[in-house]
Amino acid sequence: MLKIDDLKVSYGGIEAVKGITFEVPERKIVTLIGANGAGKSTTLRTIAGLVKPAHGRIHLQGEDITGLSPDRIVSKGITLVPEGRRVFPDLTVLENLKIGAYLRRDSIEDDLNWVYELFPRLKERSWQAAGTLSGGEQQMLAVGRALMSRPKIIMMDEPSLGLAPLVVKGIFDIIREINRQGVTVLLIEQNANMALRIADVAYVLETGKLTLSGTGRELLANEQVKKAYLG
Amino acid sequence: MKLSKKTNVGLTVALVAVAAVVITLLDLKIIGSTYVTNIIKLSAIYALVGVSMNLVNGFTGLFSLGQAGFMAIGAYVVAMLTTDPAGRAGIYYVVPINPVLEQIQIPFPVALILGGLVAAGLAYLIGAPILRLKSDYLAIATLGFSEIIRVVLSNNELAPFTNGSLGLKNVPSFSSMWKDLGLPGNGLWLCLGIVALCIAIVVLLINSSYGRAFKAIRENEVAAEAMGINLAHHKQMSFAIGAFFAAIGGGLLAAHLTAIDPNQFKIALTYELLLIVVLGGLGSITGTVLGAFVYTAGKEWLRWCDNPLTIGGVEIPIFRSGLRMVIFSILLMVIVLFYNRGLMGTSEFSWNGIYGTLRRWIGKVTGKIRKEAKQ
Question: What is the pLDDT of residues B54-84, one digit of tens each?
């Protein structure tokens, strides 16, 4: 569904992503794991259009979307849950969700109900300022907000960052549920254990290059991965 | 506890009715004086420009200090195009008026909108390069741009149009325009009506999905961009809409004062507006309106500080011209230090808010009384 072809991205002369090629099949959960600075976030930001690639092409369902502006990419059906949640703190939960649907011109009522069904907690707090939510609730809101654009692919940048283990488990359950309902997921994580457990396809990214790939289960069993990422 | 919807609506209707009666009585000069109505008009005009500044600074989070320049554009368009052609030779008495301009006279509302559009167009064009700047750098760029507008308007080469540094006079006043319409009163309704209409439009804009996008940009640019909000376009639009309403405010100011002068639109005017916006609360429309009235009325009331003061035969030395501005500077510092969200913060006026505050105060007082009674 999403095809990344020999992607290279540089920040001020330093190459953060050094030519990676991978594919995100439809209705699957794909994860990129890797250490800090491996280029995971850069890859997602480039797909979302926030950063322009130096080289390589990105195709969504056969259509070249390389270098399009972020708003065009969102309207084509790719949405990013940014790292560190980044909800709009002074706006209410409902307003946050409505901004997620900003580019849509059709009725958002059904999707609002869908998000409230996935996250009943958000419904309870819909009139509360997002900044007053707990970390886990903010992450739910960030995911819900992204879903409001009714994406084909939802990309998540470290959804477990800074959350308690029990909350992380809840978030991963939701990711699986979203995927079951037909949304393709591209996930990057430092919490390799959790990510590999739910991933259909997984890639290991090391200093800007893909070094390993396989199903989540395969990588979980891989000696190298165990040593480097699972501890 | 909250007030019921019925009480809310009832209180609002009552407030509007009382305000309408008071405005009408003031306008017919049954109560108050011209001095009072003038302060009200000026406050209302400052409120509108303050709201336009708040749209850019408080709601979109762009630190822009260009409002005085955009006001100047609006004021000049109104002053150049609405005066009586017969009297124009008397205004342009040093450099004769441009013969084409001399023939053109357009109605006040058209001139207001035209001024707004010119300012908005200019803001949109310069917004493209300068809105890439952030925070204080943007403030410096907009401030500089505002000064450029003022200097261009007072330039001698443009004197056949702008009358150079002499400024323009004989602008039709609200009172004369109102009387031309054959209505009773002195035009207070005209000024307040236009201001109210413009502020209502800004409020509708802020509460629309477009306005929500502005607020999203203020809260977090990265997330807003990831949600598909085109940052450059929205910032430019916010800047241009802010300029539009600032220019309308400038046009109203020209009609209010009936004479304008390029020196009125110096940086000091932007700072006055910034004071109003910060005093009222960045991100609160009702706060800005309140701030405008408190500031303008306060500035008038503090005039006694500018005159020599003698207590018990001793003349206090600091009481001389300019002291009231010192007091305002101190006030601003106090607000920034201790009350840095302004009078209203980012919340809007609501009867529930007042009710809650009253209950808290009454609770405190009765609590104290009870405590004392126990002792």
Answer: 999 999 999 999 999 999 999 999 999 998 8
Q: DSSP secondary structure string, A51-113?
A: S--SEEEEEETTEE-TT--HHHHHHHTEEEE-TT----TTSBHHHHHHHHTTT--S--HHHHH
Q: Which residue of B has its CA nearest to A155?
A: B226
Q: Which residue in chain B has the smallest CA separation from A84?
A: B223
CA–CA gap between residue B183 and residue B174 (Å, rounded): 12
CA angle (B116, B118, B124) in 5-degree steps: 100
- Relative orientation angle of helices B323-338 and B285-301, to the nearest 10 degrees: 150
Answer whether A156's CB lies under 8 Å from A185's CB. Answer: yes
A48-A65-A70 Cα angle (round to 5): 35
Q: What's the pLDDT tens digit per position in A202-219? A: 999 888 888 888 888 888
Contact B219 A145 (CB under 8 A): no
Q: Which residues from B are below 8 Å from A82, CB to CB?
A: 222-223, 226
pTM for the full model? 0.88
**What are A8's strand-pairing partners?**
A18, A55
